[in-house]
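Researcher: Structure for this, please.
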Amino acid sequence: MTCVPAQQNLLEHYVRKILAAPVYELAVRTPLQPSPALSVALGNQILLKREDLQPTFSFKIRGAYNKLVQLSPDQQARGVVTASAGNHAQGVALAARELGIEATIVMPASTPELKVLGVRSRGADARLHGASFPFALAYALDLAEQTGKTFVSPFDDPDVIAGQGTVAMEILRQHQGPLDAIFVPVGGGGLIAGIAAYVKYLRPQVRIIGVESEHSACLQAALEADQRVILASVGTFADGVAVAQIGSHGFEVCRFCVDEVLTVSNDELCAAIKNIYDDTRSIAEPSGALAVAGIKKYVAKNNVRGQTFVAIESGANINFDSLRHVAERAALYGTPA
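Model: Predicted structure, token format:
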């Protein structure tokens, strides 16, 4: 990757913010864990970045805390409002509780009950509104304007992006040997923007590959159009990434830092959930398994062997009663390498 000066300055700006982000006041440094069976099956070394082991079972706590801790005393006193399909919501709820901030969180009516309970158990006001994230977002923005509370974007904010970028900082410190590509799940683009900015600044030869659900592929659509577009509809099976438009701040980075975007089906996600379980005995939510599904598709498409890939296992917030469907689809689709 060769950057023009303006692009290099943008990456440097994010790297500085990532290095200064005080996320470890609440988030934890998660392990980079080998996936032995999947590595053998695919003929490549597969490493899982276990963000499902965060206090809220998702990487989102990083960006949420980094944003809230940097609000002014007046903003903290007035409270915050956000919209989320669940993982950012739980991150904001926990961060707000720790910082003594009142939080109102708008979630789609289709949000898994586990995520709603996770928000309420952490003391935040969870409000269900709309069939999907775009409707919840519009309502939350109106609510922020009416109440004077600060709106905290789940992905379209430089401080949130910098918080998520600490994932990349850990990966490069944990694995200093050869690294060919990092596969990143994509919803609104905050995680992939933070990871891409940090990695491309320090190790530009490492490929950054985004993985989207084929039912919410807003980054792929934006890159193809060379501008942000709004999807006509989004599927909610992978509810953690059910976003209709990539964030503007994230797209500013992704348009020159992301090497490739892959899309995967719901059945491929179910198979990837089983792959992760077989190797780690952890249960990823559908959006948490995107990166593994993407690696499998990438290896099959390019017939690569002997490379080292990192998959971000981004979350584990899945309703227990959804597991039967996942197991049935994985059995029907199979879990081939």
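Researcher: Any notable elements?
Model: The CA atoms of residues 82 and 152 lie 5 Å apart. The first strand starts at residue 32 and ends at 34.
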